[in-house]
Amino acid sequence: MRKKIMIACSLVLVLCVLTKIIGYSNSSINYPVVKVKLDTLKKDLKKENFIALSFANELVPTGSKHIDSKMETALKSNSFKKLQTYQLHQRAEVWFPIIEPILKKYGIPDDFKYIPLIESGMKRGQYS
To answer: Distance (Å, rounded) from C-alpha 37 to C-alpha 53?
Structure first.
């Protein structure tokens, strides 16, 4: 009985190792690294029309105006500064130094500083 379990576990382990080795050997695509100045980056992106974008190791089919406009809209709407988590981090950076001494003064645990962040998003004019 123990032999069967050991053989089965060994086979599973060998299969896992082989899939890792095979998976990493296929993903050895070398993308060129280029230093670019920040001012010229926007111009270059517009000119190249997102030619080098890839998804799941396949190039994104760009070139037509429709696809390029959709891609540009998607990239703009999902930029880092528009994400809600980024905005919450920014608000927490402002308000936590104000909230922490108040909580400490009344002996309230420090974890309670997250409640207004979660409930109202630290937006002005809202209360919980």
So the answer is: 19
Q: Which residues fall within 8 angstroms of residue 119, CB to CB, at 6 or more apart?
A: 128
pLDDT band of residue 35 (cuts 50, 70, 90) is low
Range of weakest confidence among 34-38, 81-85, 108-112: 34-38
β-bridge mates for residue 54, sequence order: 59
* pLDDT, mean of residues 19-44: 62
* E runs forming strands in 2-124: 54-55, 58-59
Coil, strand or helix at 60? coil
Among 91, 98, 94, CA closest to 123 = 91
Phi–psi pair at 96, nearest 5 degrees = -60, -40
